[in-house]
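Bit of a strange request maybe. I'm writing a small parser for structure token strings and I need a real example to test against, not something I typed by hand. Could someone generate the tokens for this chain?
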Amino acid sequence: MTGILEGTKVVELGHMVAVPVAGATMADWGADVLKIEPLDGEMARGIYIMQDQEDPAADLPSNNWYFHVLNRGKKTMSVDLKTEAGRNVVYKLVEEADVFTANYERSSLAALGMDYQTLQQVNPKLIYASLTGYGTEGPDKDLRGLDWTAAWARGGIMQSLAGPDGIPVASRGGMMDRVTGSHLVGGICAALYHREKTGEGQEIRYSLYHIGVWSILEDVQAELVGKRLPPHDRIAPMSPTANSYRTKDGKWFWISGLGSGWQALCEIIDRPDLVDSDLIKDYYTSDESKHALIQVLDEVFAGKSRAEWNDIFNRHNFLFGRAASPAEVVEDEQAEVNGFFTDLGHPGEEMRVIASPVKFTQNPAAVDGPAPEVGQHTEETLRELGYEWEEITALKEQGVIL
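Reply from user aminoacidic:
Good idea to test on real output. This should exercise your parser:
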């Protein structure tokens, strides 16, 4: 059984997160992904998410697990694209490639001869997918952008999630990059389908800014029609059945009354007196009633553990979600049995990683080994392109390849 993208050749000129995670997803799905890196490797090779918490001065781990997750299952070659010989190597790759992905600045891509106009001449059927911070038009088209700055902050998410005090909320590193990676893969697959029907290549443009705006669609769309969604206030939420509550054991959960409603919640928590109380009657017109009702509910939910509420809500088919920590997610049987995690296949060292979330029944995805070392497949790839050993040696001596 083969991956659903088996036979698809992808050349990745990506660094950090968004484009590499798209490449990792396509590699999981069976594509042949070749990562082009500078001679000293791309930036994410030097990023370690955590050091020893007890001893921050301790040596960094020799195994960069974060880089492995973003680049598993790929091949890589190190090439100096500032040289003509280096660019010619990539042009030979592009001649046979289906997809080219990039998230370096457009000006840098043009200077290196890796822009769409150049590569389209090399391979007219190429699917070329490039990511910018803020788009390809307008006054900010050349600004550098990261997921924090372009998607999370300027996209409107950061401020929309601020509490009543107005203080913006930080995201976890690379979170919007990974959302962006999913859009990248979706667009690439659509372009491949279009090429299958027409034989035509395609340039696809993405921006972190636009994907951030799309991700906070409800708030931005409300503004487009002259409305404004208020920030969530836990002690005065828009609805008492759409809020977080703390349990007896100090843990949190979220409930949603969609499809059930207030009366159902009152029956579940054994408080029929609240169904038609003045607190709920005045809830949507009085902040005092909001605060008072949430205080009552806080007291109710503090009377039982989260596990007890979990059983109660599930028995009544009421929408409920545990506010799980990452540690709890890793230990969650539901995540395990549904294949959220898989073995990386790192030689000599066991490592579990998060699997791609899309499940193909007939062509299941699979992680095909760890991320490669810098330049690991340079010689192999050049030989496949028809380079003789004498030519490869010359390129090394000239500093074109690693």
